[in-house]
Amino acid sequence: MAKDHGSSVKNDDTYEELRDQGYSKEKSARIANAQSNDNVEHDSRPYEERTKDELYDEAQEIGIEGRSDMTKDELIEALRNH
């Protein structure tokens, strides 16, 4: 059973699953809440299975600085730590 993460996380199961996959707390909460509200589509594929362009687009959406010069591995690390 999922732990209760308080009112700031709408879907505790999704939040915990994303944290287990290496997503940051902030990003896990954002995705879990979006899925709960059915507002945003989420690409559930692991970062390693996505193209560099897909990772770049996601980094751009959330405002990661320096993404133009990053390798695929650097983009993955930046997205996980955001």
Automatic annotation (TrEMBL):
Residues 1-54 are annotated as: Disordered. One of its GO terms (biological process) is DNA-templated transcription termination. Residues 53-79 form the Rho termination factor-like N-terminal domain. Residues 1-29, 39-54 have a biased composition (Basic and acidic residues). InterPro entries: DUF7218, Rho-like_N, Rho_N_sf. It comes from the Bacteria. This is Rho termination factor. It comes from Pacificimonas flava.
